[in-house]
Specification:
With about 70 residues, the protein is α+β, with helices and mostly antiparallel strands. Helices cover about 40% and strands about 20% of the residues.
């Protein structure tokens, strides 16, 4: 499945919170930090209007989420 070029940071955060159990931990400047209750792992998502493809894929890789599964939930 092809990655859309216009995915925003806010859209990514909404899907991570709604479907994958991440919670907003804090906001500092133009970045939001997400955290899971059961894990020590944190995830930082920039609040850009359009995320770079590499940044988007790095967020998914760190969260252990398959690209196709995530894109279906957008």
């Amino acid at each position: 499945m092809k990655i859309p070029r216009n995915i925003s940071g806010i859209e990514v955060i909404k899907v991570l919170v709604k479907y994958y159990g991440w919670e907003v931990y804090r906001r500092q400047g133009s970045h939001v930090t997400l955290k899971k209750r059961s894990e020590v792992e944190i995830l930082t998502v920039p609040l850009h209007f359009q995320l770079d493809i590499g940044t988007f894929l790095a967020i998914l890789r760190k969260a252990n989420i398959e690209k196709e599964d995530f894109l279906k939930k957008l």
